[in-house]
Write a structure and sequence with these properties.
Elements (H helix, E strand, L loop, with lengths): L7 E3 L13 E4 L2 E4 L2 E4 L5 E6 L6 E9 L6 E9 L8 E8 L6 E8 L2 E9 L7 E7 L2 E7 L4 E8 L9 E5 L5 E9 L22
Antiparallel strand pairs: 1-15, 2-5, 3-4, 4-15, 5-14, 6-11, 6-15, 7-8, 7-14, 8-9, 9-10, 11-12, 12-13
Length: about 210
């Protein structure tokens, strides 16, 4: 089925705090303002909250405030070399607030440089949700447009096969996200002969 299958890890429903409790900085950090998560610096921020036990994993969040024009909101999985932004590697779902039509992308981050693996020209809005999933070399981006979940993007990449943290990223101090979740995918999603598994093929996605 489309959409997340793991629990919410942080609702951000608490008093304002900077940095947000439980989050570890890669570049600046996440802060809580009015029960939402923002980057705590206008120059952007990247932080993570936990490391799933399995390489087959997902992470997701809800758009709470769109970033400024050309800025991005990011959900990341299989993060590695998180000690500094200059060395960060990951797979990410990137939502880009373009001046024209917005873009939603699966990207690979290599030493903080993003390479687009697959992209969709799609407007995103407050209340929309995005989840990025990895199983083996298969990557999927599922999207909720305010009424229905769908599988928006799929691709494959073998660069980062190992377990790594999941987290959030911002390229400005305006955009905000909410209800961050994620973790290891259930075994039903980890069919070694077919990437994300029979449960995510054919009619199950229609």
């Amino acid at each position: 089925m489309a959409g997340p299958v793991t629990p919410i890890l942080d609702t951000f429903n608490r008093a304002d705090e900077n940095p947000a409790a439980g989050w570890t900085s890669v570049f600046n950090n996440v802060k809580v303002v009015s029960n939402q998560a923002l980057g705590n610096n206008a120059a952007g921020a990247v932080a993570y909250i936990t490391t799933p036990a399995s390489t087959n994993c997902e992470a997701y969040a809800t758009v709470a405030i769109k970033p400024a024009a050309t800025a991005t909101l990011t959900v990341a999985i299989r993060m590695k070399d998180t000690g500094a932004i200059a060395t960060l590697d990951a797979y990410i779902a990137n939502l880009i607030n373009n001046v024209g039509t917005d873009a939603i992308r699966i990207q690979r981050t290599d030493n903080a440089v993003n390479t687009t693996l697959v992209s969709s020209s799609t407007e995103f809005a407050v209340g929309d949700k995005v989840v990025i999933k990895a199983s083996g070399n298969d990557l999927e981006l599922h999207y909720y447009n305010g009424s229905i979940w769908s599988v928006l993007l799929t691709t494959t990449d073998s660069t980062y096969p190992n377990v790594g943290p999941i987290g959030l990223g911002y390229s400005d101090g305006v955009g905000a996200m909410d209800d961050f979740g994620g973790g290891s995918l259930p075994l039903i999603y980890a069919d070694p002969l077919d990437g994300l598994g029979a449960s995510m093929r054919g009619g199950a996605l229609e």
